[in-house]
Structure formats: structure tokens, C-alpha cells
Amino acid sequence: MTIRPYRPADHETLLRLFVKNTPTAFGENEIADYADFLQTNTNPYFVAEYAGQLVGACGHYIRADGITARIVWIFTDPDAKGLGVGSALLRNSLDKICQEPAVQTIECQTSQVAYQFFERFGFVVQHTEPDYWATGLDLYFMIATL
After folding, report:
1. 3-state secondary structure (DSSP) of residue 99
2. Taking residues 117-140, what's their average pLDDT?
3. pTM above 0.90?
4. Which among 18, 57, 73, 133 could disulfide-bond with 137, CB atoms 3.0 to 4.6 Å apart, if both were Cys?
């Protein structure tokens, strides 16, 4: 598996993978938000390739306070489940965040579909909000401290 920075040529493939995760992990309403993110994002965003195919993506940014980072738009191709793609992508972002000496906390907004994945990396649920992302997809706001 290779992890590399996102390129504009990845846009359509990532949108297709994102849609494959809808409505199980993302709400239909999030498709347009993700498409806009891909066109406007200037923060670190990475893709995973396996056997020559894109199989996931994950990014992060440092908040304006300079001491908090946030993981954004992490997902994998459901057909690549069990290959460790999500773990590799999250580790990549965590490694890059840890290179920022001022960062003390990492935030993640996820759902009941993925919160246990983040717990394996030390994230702790701070609060939840029902039907936040879409009907049946709750917000799980999590943090990890460095």
C-alpha cells in the first residue's frame, strides 16, 4: 500500500468511493460537501493506493488556536475492508500532526459507524448528538491528547 498526497486527478475516483459509503457511513447530503472539499481544500489530504487502485483518503488541519488538530474526511473503499487502509491513513495523519510541536489535542468528528476505530488510536468520545449527519447517523465528537 502506498500513501501519497491527494491530486486533482483523484477527484472522480474518490467521489465514487465516497458514494459507496453512502448511506452506511455518510449521509447523502454530505456528497456535495465532500466534492466541494476536494476542490477547495488547501490542507494536507492523502490517498491510499493498493494494487494500483485508490482505496481511501484522510486529511487533517491545524485549527487557528495552533494547539488543536482535526482529522477530516477519512474513509476507505468498503471492498478493501480488512486490508488496514483506514489504519494506515490515520497513522499517516497522526504522524504528520505529531511533527507540529505546539499541537496538544487532536479532534475527530465521526459517527457510531466508526467511533470504535478511533478508540483504538486513543480517541475518547466527548459527546454525541443523534441524527447529526443524517437520520440514523449520529455525531460522535472525539479527542486524543498528545
Report:
1. coil
2. 97
3. yes
4. 133
